Amino acid sequence: MQLHNLKRKTPNKTSTQVGRGGTRGKTSGKGTKGQNARAGRKKRPEIRDVIKRLPKLRGRGVSSLKSIQSKSVPVNLGDINEYFSVGDTVSLETLIAKGLASSSSGNIAVKVLGGGNLDKKLTFKGCKVSESARAKITSAGGVIE
């Protein structure tokens, strides 16, 4: 063993480099002043601003609280009693023809309600009927199909 072959048991300790010193120098590789030079910089991506400006087209149209089902046109038994004669058939087409229901609003269903009295025997086709109207129609001798 000779002196030039000797090695240390532990290596030299080197200090950890910080932004102020070491090989980076002055601005520590962060350029000059401003937002980009600050610690923990988080710049908002430009595309995010474009996305935020776009209109949101979610859900079902303007109001998601609106029902998907089409609303039915309400017609009272009292009105049907005035416009129809004995033995007639009450349907969506006949109600539109007599002016009791309108198809302009896009509604395709009719619901017969129990308002008023019915004293004629009528046949109801393709109409929704409330419980009170059903009782009045059957008591007058009418038929619901």
From TrEMBL:
Protein name in UniProt: Large ribosomal subunit protein uL15
Biased composition (Basic residues): 1-11
InterPro entries, A to Z: Ribosomal_uL15, Ribosomal_uL15/eL18, Ribosomal_uL15/eL18_sf, Ribosomal_uL15_bac-type, Ribosomal_uL15_CS
Residue span of region Disordered: 1-46
Source organism of this protein record: Candidatus Zambryskibacteria bacterium RIFCSPLOWO2_01_FULL_43_17
Lineage: Bacteria, Candidatus Zambryskiibacteriota
Keywords noted in UniProt: Ribonucleoprotein, Ribosomal protein, RNA-binding, rRNA-binding
Alphabetical list of PANTHER family matching this protein: 50S RIBOSOMAL PROTEIN L15 (PTHR12934), LARGE RIBOSOMAL SUBUNIT PROTEIN UL15M (PTHR12934:SF11)
A Pfam entry, by short name: Ribosomal_L27A
